Amino acid sequence: MKSPAFQFYPGDWLSSMSVTMMTPAQEGAYIRLICYDWSNDGIPDDDDSLASLSRMGEGWLKGGSTTIKKCFIPHPTKSGFLTNFRLQTEREKQDVWREKSAIGGKKSAEARKQKALERSQGSLKGGSNLVQPNGNSSSSSSSSSSTSIREREKSALALSSPTPKTKTDPSPPTRPPAKSEFHDRMPSDAANDFDALFAQINGMHPTWKKRPHPTHIEMETAANNAKALFAIEAADWDSLRAFYAIATFPPEWEEKAKGGPFWRPESRSRFIEGIADILGHHDRWQALKRKGGATA
Questions:
Q1: DSSP 171-184
Q2: 3-class DSSP assignment, residue 148
Q3: Interacting residues of 49 by C-beta distance below 8 A, sequence separation 6+
Q4: Is the pLDDT of residue 205 over 80?
């Protein structure tokens, strides 16, 4: 089942360096291609097709494609197609959610079916067992009659008693994702050390340390973005932490002509997902700091 919608963050869009550097025509073409990407699970890696889909026409073929195509990557499963990295991450995230919801629905249906079966069995156990008379003697008749009465009394008692509910064991806690699940997507020269990587990431923001263990989605995103994350050296992590620690920047540094407001997401998952853009904002801050000689 294909989802008809995806999350759109206006703040991220307006602060993205990639979008800021586009002309209005390129920005409009970019959002059109993103919509086609989501609706069709990718866009064709063909300039003639993209010129038509983007509505740029000759403008696409005369250099307009250069800036926009940087925002797309080769589709991981469809040869000859492109996709936006954040859209692909959102697509996979929604697939995981739908799968979990389907599993939960099946478990709920099985639990209801089991309870109905238990109630049915409880009613059957309460049924009466009449003893048929054996012969015509008065003693046999009397014995049969008393036995029948006792059986009916037991049956009535069983039917009036509530059926005990069987306690089911709670579902075991979700298994944390094994690091080996993501190793095949790691760069061959990387240390593949998720613990060290997330120790650096958690050091970026005080609230991230309170929940040090990554979620499955965060590890999935880190694996997909591993090339950029593992390329960050120790000195760069220190500089990124300094960038995050600044309370306010000089207003003139955040003017639109100079790239607009610096983007520093408060969410750890969005930090992992948008590391390329964050590094771009960090580098712009470093350049302005060197040029201005300020301490900000």
A1: PPPPPPPPGGGGGG
A2: helix
A3: 43
A4: yes
Q: Nearest 5°: CA angle at 273, between 94 and 258? A: 130
Instruction: Tell me how far apart the 2 most distant CA atoms of the chain are, in Å.
Output: 119
To which residue do tokens 């037991």 refer? Answer: 154
End-to-end Cα distance, the chain: 49
Report how far residue 284's alpha carbon sits from residue 265's, in angstroms, rounded to the nearest whole number.
16
Please name the residues in contact with 294: beta carbons below 8 A apart, sequence gap of 6 or more.
250
DSSP string, 46-65: -HHHHHHHTT-THHIIIIIH
The stretches of 203-273 forming alpha helices (DSSP H) are 216-224, 226-230, 234-245, 268-273
242 has pLDDT over 80: yes
Strands, sheet with 73-74, edge to edge from the N-terminal-most edge strand: 43-44, 81-83, 73-74
DSSP 141: H
| Secondary structure (3-state) at 186 | coil
Angle 85-125/216-224 helices, nearest 10 degrees?
Answer: 150
Query: Which positions ≥6 away from 178 have C-beta within 8 Å?
Result: none
CA–CA distance, 112 with 275 (Å, rounded to integer):
46
Question: Taking the model in full, what pTM does it have?
Answer: 0.41
Query: Residue with structure tokens 């629905």?
Result: 105
Report which of 178, 181, 179, 209 is spatially closest to residue 194, judged by C-alpha positions.
179
Contact 29/60 with Cβ under 8 angstroms? yes
pLDDT (tens digit, 9 = 90+) per residue, 112-147? 888 878 777 776 665 545 445 555 545 555 555 555
- From CA 80, how far away is CA 42, in angstroms rounded? 9
260 neighbors 277 (Cβ within 8 angstroms): no
Distance, in Å, from the CA atom of 241 to the CA atom of 203, rounded to the nearest integer, reads 7
- Domain borders along the chain are 10-91, 179-292
